[in-house]
Design a protein that fits this description.
Shape: elongated
Largest sheet: 4 strands, antiparallel
Keywords: Membrane, Transmembrane, Transmembrane helix
Order of helices and strands: EHHEEEEHEEEH
Oligomer: single chain
Structural class: alpha+beta
Distance between the termini: 22 Å
InterPro entries: DUF3093
Helix content: 25-40%
Number of strands: 8
Length: about 150
């Protein structure tokens, strides 16, 4: 993954929303109480700490970094050179839901997050690549589409 720096044309990091963290906080408390009641404090604390560690790991692995730098587009662990990008189209909520759902192409690269309501469809022109397009969630969809066009 490319790190953004002053030569970066576009950079965005998508992490879990506060509402998901709040829900998981309630779940952590519930898990603690579930194990504390029949067992003891030490066992419940151990299970809860393991669960919290798993959540932190899941948060780290599921974040989405989008970077455009030096003629390359990096999305998570995937990357593509800009010369293979045909066009990029900003998608509103309705368009993103449609292309992510009933109009989806199973061969497309999908880097979406359910809590992000806008995105970009990046059409590719690489004959050797069977991927027709990349679908990317972005809070800054217009800026990303402008950067890629």
């Amino acid at each position: 993954m490319a790190r953004s720096n002053r030569k970066t044309e576009f950079a965005e990091r998508i992490s879990w929303p506060v509402s998901l963290w709040a829900f998981l906080g309630v779940m952590v408390g519930s898990i603690f109480l579930t194990f504390w009641a029949p067992f003891n404090f030490l066992f419940a604390s151990t299970v809860t700490i393991v669960f919290i560690a798993a959540l932190i790991y899941a948060h780290y692995k599921s974040r989405l970094d989008i970077v455009v730098i030096n003629g390359w587009l990096y999305v998570g662990n995937a990357k593509i050179e800009m010369k293979y990008i045909k066009s990029a189209k900003e998608l509103n909520k309705k368009q993103l839901l449609k292309i992510r759902g009933p109009a989806a192409d199973p061969a497309a690269f999908n880097a979406t997050r359910y809590w992000i309501k806008t995105g970009v469809k990046v059409e590719l022109k690489d004959k050797a690549d069977p991927t027709p397009y990349w679908l990317i969630s972005s809070r800054k969809a217009k800026a990303l589409a402008d950067c890629l066009n």
